[in-house]
């Protein structure tokens, strides 16, 4: 594919987008069911492509974590198909109407939701994202350009082949789901210059990838750099509840962006709460980086270092700081937070309200686990990404975030 | 100001933004009234600064149009103050709550509207934008960095001085409304790299400026390149209505982005409608660029050239094309439209619905003038800009477009 040009890829996707923008919900759901069926039928072909890539990845000394993400099994392929069937059940945001007003001159103003057009997903070696993002973009009436990590391209192409069969059955162009078949970085760079054809870029992966895309894209980018989530245990917290939120946030699945990375404890709770924390973390083998006001409670804890605040450990490891009061907790989050998810545990509604109103984060929780900061848990049905910048979407993004609203004005010949 | 750094300006604005984000609507309205009063009181100082800049601009052979935009009079300053008083009357989007759902596990999810943070406006020599954008950003809880054209900096500083007095009266930092006092292009370039501090850039001006800002910004940009608005006169149009919409769109104020630039006429209406158009355009001295199917109706019309389609004349000048049918009209708009405003004149609801659903534009009108495509006319109360790209906002942007929604989750200790 040496002659492959980003402009051609993008222009073809933009053309294909027009073919899906005006499909009815029913039509889109039929196609999605065909996609799920086709992926199931293609299980042998997908596994063959995947085995070859796994072998290659092992030969390249790929990390165990990446090998796990890359690995498909018949069960994982079935999950992919089921995920598409769940997307069929989601409400279609496209076409929804919102009456604004009838002006004194009689013109009637409403807003109607339309697809964005072409979404470009840039992600690492996760073949399931290919099916998932392809289906979510399709359900919201968009075309998608999928640029996955080089380790998973053949597996992604096998999955996309199945989706293309489904598109062809319904006389839709295969460019509705476009896989970039070449991992060349220059091609990616060219792709994110195509603001004439591409409406949104969603990078998913490490901070370096997201920074590279943001710095070089002409197309608007949804950014999700990292999740450094704090739990603040207030003076009026229920300490048993606080301990449950802490353990759930740190231990249940430490490698995800909505896991807790820092515990802030009100000074009046420190003497009671920190021994409870120390015992639980010993049992769960959580490594502690403790401030000087808390370290005496933790045997073998590391004294806090400058880099520990704001650190995304993604591991059973946490920073702990005792703070004077709510204001000090909010000042800490202001300095070290990542605009992702922040939690307060308190029985005092006034403290909760202050925290909710003043902390700058996409998701603010009161007496609930940071682990709920997820499209599925927040009722979006599915998640295409999480935005930690405020434009367009802030927080977990569902189907609606892949659409926009336009004005529709109806009159009887009115002029100004 | 040789030591002025973009990072310092932006960091100070970001700090100031925190001081306004949590003000109540009442507090913000008090400050806005003080701003209006202070601008009225500062009329002599503003006029002095403006006279000096006008003299300088005349010495530099500035165009008459720009001189007019630059010129302030006591009446224009009074209008500025009144515009701020109108902004007081607008509903405050910040803090509005939207219940999403209570999940089966009992957590309660809502969305609450918050300010974006820091808005950077980049505009040409229009001193009124200083007051207007300053007040709109303030009302929506944001700080603003105003970078106006070099010809109007002293006038803008005089206006901002008055606004700063009002801020000081209410113990608010003057960086809430920051004027970039140096027209240096490198400083602007540095400013739009400050994505750590600035949340949104809104360039208002020529296509070159907007392209420059889009190509070089790390901060998300709201783009409004141009308005190439079409009127399609359908087979079932009321021709008297069509003529009124045409004249209003082309003649009432040709220099604005929601003026009509191209008339598309259904072939079955051409013989009846084009003579009406020819007569009216003769009376209003509108220059016509006509396609080969329409030129016989227009004495002295220019034959259409390739560049005429998609041209933003911003003058009493128009392109005219006869098209076979609705599909041909939509294909024309698809090729030459600018995603701004498109109008269909028809008595046939099915044609109107097809046009509304399929034409890609921020504002689609049925039997109403393109000139209504404006924040005020569409009920937004005021307009900070018009977006012709789909992310975040599409079409005229009011106060709500200067805010975003975050998730707020309340529980009783729920975990996953």
UniProtKB/TrEMBL annotation, chains A, B:
Q: What keywords sit in the KW lines?
A: Amino-acid biosynthesis, Cytoplasm, NADP, Oxidoreductase, Proline biosynthesis
Residue ranges of every copy of the Aldehyde dehydrogenase domain listed in the record: 10-287
Q: What is its main location?
A: cytoplasm
- Entry GO MF terms: glutamate-5-semialdehyde dehydrogenase activity
Pfam families per UniProt: Aldedh
Question: Coiled coil: which residue ranges?
Answer: none
Q: What is its EC number?
A: 1.2.1.41
Q: Where does it reside?
A: Cytoplasm
| Broad EC category | oxidoreductase
Cross-referenced HAMAP family: ProA (MF_00412)
NCBIfam families per UniProt: PRK00197.1 (NF001221), proA (TIGR00407)
- Which family does the similarity line name? Belongs to the gamma-glutamyl phosphate reductase family.
Question: What is this protein's name?
Answer: Gamma-glutamyl phosphate reductase
Q: Which organism is it from?
A: Alkalimonas delamerensis
Taxon lineage: Bacteria, Pseudomonadati, Pseudomonadota, Gammaproteobacteria, Alkalimonas
Q: Identify the coding gene.
A: proA
